[in-house]
Amino acid sequence: MPPTKKPNIDLIFDKAKCIICAGCVGICPDMALDFYGLEWTLDSAKCSACTLCVRACPVGALKLEKQ
Hints:
The chain has two helices and four strands, in the order E-H-E-E-H-E. It is of the alpha+beta class and 67 residues long. It has a single domain, classed as Alpha-Beta Plaits, CATH 3.30.70.20. It has a two-stranded antiparallel ribbon with strand order 1-4. It has a two-stranded antiparallel sheet with strand order 2-3. Strand 2 and strand 3 (39-42) form a beta hairpin. The protein is globular and about 30 Å long. The chain starts with 8 loop residues before the first strand and ends with a strand.
């Protein structure tokens, strides 16, 4: 399968809103998100900006912004 072109979008994480449910990690098809202890991490090279994590977040701690 050919690589898809990543849009010029950044995934923004609001740590103050996060309840550490890890729903975003579990739903990410690109395996771009993870929690290490209480620290949230994003591998932006893997992220395809599919918005599944944004839609799965129950508290709105994630959002996409155009660059």
